[in-house]
Sequence to fold (417 residues):
Amino acid sequence: MKLKGTFSPPGDKSISHRIGLLSLLAGGQTRVGNYSTCEDCQTTLKVVESLGVRLERTGGDVVLHGLDRKLSPKNRELDCGNSGTTMRLIMGLLAGLPGEYSLDGDASLRKRPMERVAAPLRLMGARVETAGGKPPVTVAGGDLNGISYTLPVASAQLKSAILLAGVQAGGKTTVVEPIKTRDHTEYMLRLCGAKLERSHGAWTVEPARLTLPKNFWVPGDISSAAFFLCGAAMTPGGDVTAERILLNSSRTGMIEVLYRMGARVEEEIQGDVPEAWGRVRVRHSPGLKGCEVAPAEIPLLVDEVPILALLATQAEGDTVFREVGELRVKESDRLDAIITQLNAMGADISIKGDDLYIKGPTPLKAVAGLDSFGDHRIAMMLKIAGVVAGRETAVAKEESASISYPGFYQDLRALLR
Fold:
């Protein structure tokens, strides 16, 4: 079995979330092309609709009518589903707006940490309550003060929540990030008219009125593309090209690791609006070598660790992912899922502290009883593992792939040879 052909992944999740959520703060109207159809991003649209945003779906596009901070809520109890991005970013947005709101989600989201976002918002003047640090969350917003805050964990969602509150606050708000994280919120705020500056690892935003761009296009999600690109590198005769995907440097850490392991990769940047985008081709890469992935790299490829761990099982020597403890508090305990499920297939993976160790190469065998634990990225990783093992493998709760990639199984069938 091999993966061969060309595909276009769905619109990028991170960018789709942010253009949807910014319709609460910004005025004007925008027509968004290639907005992600995944469940999480549809959840964001439902939330902004609940808060009064009028949206239209036309010809595959989404038209958003910005509220310019003038919420007209239909419901003050907001269901964030499975989406941690929706909940954390909406906390920052609501912190500067009048009214009290309750944010909740499904059983998986209720296990995820929210106190890390609540703490700086309280320092800015909002009232934020959590249930022992986790959802449900209550936010009562109002007048905010700018602060200077150093991120205790490398988290683009935490940084974004503070910046979204900061653009509504009195005075400047500065976020210091010791380790670089994704910068989509920064791109989006500037695009909407915010004054935002970066200096020595810190972002500073000033209060501003925002306006949505008239037209906006979402590049394809590189985190979704990663499954088929890595799969091609592992399967003899594999040759996969992802078209029109996001190539923002804060999201291409996965490609850098592919290069380091000796994968046959070709990439071409074809545009830079709203961020860099283009095409990536990966071909079967015999002679892959294990490598070390440093802590500073993890925030730039955190969603790709499961599929890169699978790739590492087919590489010669040891691969180490340093300080990946954040994977324990994703949609599942992804570290445990990677180890238990891939080891059941014959891999040799272990964890020491927060470091993930993979010894390779190890032949994988298709087995029964694999479980995604309802985690979309684990489900997709295990389906690609089945391809590497030479037989499609049933995975419990594999339908969870639709949380981020609704067309995953359709594209998998189209690429399988």
